[in-house]
Design brief:
202 residues, mainly alpha, minor pseudopilin epsh fold, 3-stranded antiparallel beta sheet, 8 helices, 47% helix, 10% strand, binds manganese (III) ion
Amino acid sequence: MAFTLPKLQYAYDALEPHIDARTMEIHHSKHHQGYTNNLNNAISGTNLEGKSIEDILAGLDMSNKAVRNNGGGFFNHCLYWDVMNPEVKGRLSGELKDAIEAEFGSFDAFKDSFSKAAATQFGSGWAWLCVHKGGKVEVCSTPNQDNPLMPGVTCEATPILGIDVWEHAYYLHYQNRRPDYIEAFFNVINWNEVERRYAEAK
Ligand code: MN3
């Protein structure tokens, strides 16, 4: 079974004015489609064919650039679309709220840490909120399409929230103002989905 581009749970213009429709359309239909196609090509006829994307990334040979870049790109964007949705009026609550407050002291301190990780990732990459077995949360960032599921990458935990800080994620609307995009991202986070992922991963 080849990987397929997931359908978004909302329209391309649903995240306006925080993330513009044109950016969303190109990002999903061109960039994510490209990672999906290239991943399928890279694993076709190999022993990775038929495995889940999580298994492929966890067992990744990091010298396999095609699978590293495109498998990461496929997984990372699936997560990114799912953790945004302005229709879901999610508010951080319950176990994840407790875990964030235990680690960072307050939601605002977490937001500062996550935003700083996203703003200071040099060049293209991602910032993450991850959960370790047992429930401890951690913020980290990765270059390019790497992610924390890959062996030896940053915090080696399960990512439950991620922001894409490649310029293609924000440049049309925000140009070089990455911090403004990061601030806007917080207006469209689907905390219900992040909490669901926390409960599943901890
Ligand atoms: Mn992207």
